[in-house]
Amino acid sequence: MAHQAGGQRSALRSVPERSEVRSYLQDYATLLEAVPFPSVVVDHCWDVVLANSAFQSLFREIGPHPTAMPGENFLRFVLFHPEAPAVLGEHESRWFLPMLAHFAAAVERHGHDHGLQAIRREIAQDPIMEAAFRQGLPHWIRSVGEAAVEHDGAVRPLLHPDPRWGATECRIVGETPRTLQDMGYTRLTMVLREVRRPAPAPRRRPRERRTASHLSVVPAPEA
Prior knowledge:
The N and C termini lie far apart (49 Å). Helix 4 crosses helix 6. It contains seven helices and five strands. The N terminus is likely disordered. A five-stranded antiparallel sheet has the order 2-1-5-4-3. It is of the alpha+beta class. Helices cover 37% and strands 13% of the residues.
């Protein structure tokens, strides 16, 4: 994958060494680069295998983070990066909670995966996130229904750094061919929509630690 520092063609990372697999993914990277919308290929831990230039452009103003860069692991970015709400509109309800639900499902399927277990430990270290995972998430799913958890077909708000888009929406389209499925990968494309919203308030860098005000599904402590 071409990292945030630049690059015109996606490069492969953390993929099998078999020549036929690498050859397929190299050609798929060329296909991905031809897509005008942000598009990304991830594994079951949401480690990014491939991402096109449009994906990089969407997150080009995101500051550094040791473990949660969008071009490294998109799940970690949504859950842990303090600047995620600067790009992912209505972050908690439209991005954070659906992604947390997908993480919970992944843990059920791949419970012994070291990468997923590391994320689970990081959630447990934050009392607010742990409460959201254990208590808030089940309540939220019951309230909104299982359909709200799905990525494919969902329309979600974005704050694109390119002023030609600005505050807009994307429809997330899952389009994973059989070959990628057999490798354990998933492809998602954010199809930007021609929707204009009022200009957002000037961005302020979010605080490094989330508080209850960031996660409304977590009840406020009683006085």
